């Protein structure tokens, strides 16, 4: 993870527009990836990214260096994703049972399952992995995304969420157990005897419009579907879920927000 330089932070806090632009450009992909993993919707993630970057820019003068800048940045971002009225109002409130019922509805049999289509199967795999986390409430989702997807250590993740490390560990453990149990029960990548597989699910997902709009550029750097199958087959059962959740590629922002955000806010100073 490339850090933001202390020099750029100080210059931006003193009103240097170029330094501020450098900061926004350096953090926008990380903010977008967090938003996408929390919201599992590209349009909502783009809206949230812009709002978060505006908050970061307008609050930059309050950063005093008591923690890493990246920790502070993720704290601002996560706070928005957990508390913003728009985000809370649009949270789907999925449950693992409802999601399982949806996945298992209309599965193709082996004879009519999808052919090897790297792009479509990867789109389905990535969307399914992200949607699965919507079955967690936002607090547990944030703990899981920070810990098992973005791989923050417990102390820093707790600092980002402004809770104690002990509370964070308990929250992550509960979230991890729920996601692992669901994945092992339903997902054919994690457990070969599980009922759902991407190839069986793809025809129905295409028919109901669940996939097809995901920008292929976001998936070009994701591992190939065959590579994920091989990875899952040689990974210990208790680690498969986290491996699958991380195997999305960088999920870079489809927009460059720097110029757009800087037009909307005055430089701090």
Largest sheet: none
Gross morphology is globular
> Could you tell me the number of beta strands?
0
- What is the helix fraction of residues, given as a range? 55-70%
- Uncertain parts: none
What do you see in this structure?
With 269 residues, this protein is an all-alpha fold. It has 14 helices and no strands. Helix 2 packs across helix 14, helix 9 (154-161) packs across helix 10 and helix 10 packs across helix 13 (237-246). The longest helix is centred in the N-terminal third of the chain and has 23 residues, at 17-39. The protein is globular. The two termini are 27 Å apart.
Keywords:
globular, 269 residues, 14 helices
Q: In short, what is this structure?
A:
The chain has 269 residues and is an all-alpha fold. The chain is built from 14 helices and no strands. It is globular and about 65 Å long.
Topology:
Elements: H1 6-13, H2 17-39, H3 42-59, H4 69-83, H5 85-90, H6 96-104, H7 118-132, H8 138-149, H9 154-161, H10 165-186, H11 198-207, H12 225-233, H13 237-246, H14 258-264
Helix pairs in contact: 1-2, 2-3, 2-4, 2-14, 3-4, 4-9, 7-11, 8-9, 8-10, 9-10, 10-13
